[in-house]
């Protein structure tokens, strides 16, 4: 019996910069199957790249109880192992970060509102 060995390209993780926003917006629009960014886009803070292509990102969002939560978006075809590795990295990053957007729901809500407005111009 033959065994096919598949080489998996390692992911690179990086903080989100303004120059990444177009790629993140496109991933979100495809994932949501919509033409406009909504508050579900959140405030992106970490991304995953394969080679030089952004394949996933994590955002801070508001949950139903007006608390801070994490939402991940990825391109179609991202493997479960890649999602799980990225999720682990995201959770560690979230726990370590103590800036206002990560800990103050009102600050985050305001930041998301401004981000969505800017991306929909």
Outline the structure in words:
With 121 residues, this protein is of the alpha+beta class. Helices cover 40% and strands 25% of the residues. It has helices at 21-32, 80-96, 100-103, 105-119, and strands spanning 11-15, 43-50, 53-62, 68-74. Strands 1-2-3-4 form a four-stranded antiparallel sheet. The N and C termini lie far apart (57 Å).
Write a concise synopsis of the structure shown:
The protein has helices spanning 21-32, 80-96, 100-103, 105-119, and strands at 11-15, 43-50, 53-62, 68-74.
Label this structure with key terms.
25% strand; 4-stranded antiparallel sheet; globular; alpha+beta; single chain; 40% helix; 4 helices; 121 residues
Report the average pLDDT across residues. 92
N- to C-terminal separation? 57 Å
Instruction: Work out the number of β strands.
Output: 4
Structural class: alpha+beta
Q: What's the order of the H and E elements?
A: EHEEEHHH
Overall geometry: globular
Strand residue content: 15-25%
Q: Helix content range of the residues, please?
A: 25-40%
Rg of Cα set: 15 Å
Number of discrete helical segments: 4
Unreliable spans are: none
Quick one: biggest sheet? 4 strands, antiparallel
Strand order of the largest sheet: 1-2-3-4
